[in-house]
Amino acid sequence: MKTAFITGASSGIGRATAVALGRAGFKLVLTGRRLERLQELARELADVPTHLLTFDVRNRAAVEAAVASLPAEFADVDVLINNAGNAHGLAPIQQGDPNDWDAMLDGNVKGLLYVSRAVLPAMTRRNTGHIINIGSIAGHETYANGNVYCASKAAVAALTKGMRLDLLPHHIRVAEVNPGAVETEFSEVRFKGDTQRAAGVYQGYEALRAEDVADLLAFMVTRPAHVNIAEVLILPAAQGAATVIRKE
Fold it and tell me: Which of 19, 20, 43, 117 has the fewest Cβ atoms nearer than 10 Å?
């Protein structure tokens, strides 16, 4: 039974991916900052072997310690889903909050690097593995007031390509999935708990659900070993570009 390591598994795309990969026959390492939510998910996946790790991907020492603590039956990670990330604020650059900038760059870029660096020795030693980084349409289409968030996701795109080249000799597949509008806690976090403003982002059309992205991820990681679906843009049918959405 293969092992999948999922960051940000306590909600949204990460949680839905855990359910999808559990159904697909994977053992799961579920990570996040909210232990109670991870425990609830593990109870839901009662028939799936799971191991829980609580850490913030922005804390390199915590990431390294958590991965080093994995018991033998979960230590040889086959699939890494770098899902944890965040968006904070939506302001022009001259009005941006440097604390928001730090949170996005530390989580979306450095956190991805920290987790990958900690997990990769188990893959390179065995010359096998599959890494999928969750990017965003924002990494390919910069939009007004998205500045630092878009930059962080553009970095994910560049890192994915670099990782794929560097890990090619080790037979490790590296891919990127770039969602458009997905109705999760994303906007609530971006707007700092303003639930009314967050809900408005998804009104008037049918956004993607976390399960839609999870189904795609499950398909990608169950392809034959000679197949790497390297880059996917997944949008709701009502979305034509990063900020172009048809509303009824």
Answer: 43
Q: Residue 194: which CATH number?
A: 3.40.50.720
Q: Which two tokens stand for residue 110?
A: 């450095």
Give, in degrees to the nearest 5, the angle at Cα 68 between 216 and 64. Answer: 80
Q: How many Cα neighbours within 13 Å face the side chain of 164?
A: 16
Catalytic residue among 114, 143, 149, 205: 149
Where in the sequence is the domain holding 101, given as residue range(s)? 3-245
Q: Is 149 a catalytic residue?
A: yes
Per-residue pLDDT of 176-191, as tens digits, reads 999 999 998 777 777 7
Pair of tokens at residue 186:
């994303």
Question: Is residue 32 within 8 Å of residue 50, measured between CB atoms?
Answer: no
> What does 34-96 look like in DSSP terms, one character per residue?
-HHHHHHHHHHTTTS-EEEEE--TT-HHHHHHHHHT--HHHHS-SEEEE----------GGG-
Structure tokens at 205: 């059309």
Nearest in space to 244 (alpha carbons), one of 141, 157, 147? 141
Number of domains in the chain: 1
CA neighbor of 148 nearest in space, from 85, 217, 235: 85
Average pLDDT over residues 161-190: 93
In this prediction, residue 191 carries a pLDDT of 73
Quote the CA–CA distance of 139 and 242 in Å, as a whole number. Answer: 10
Q: What is the mean pLDDT of the chain?
A: 96
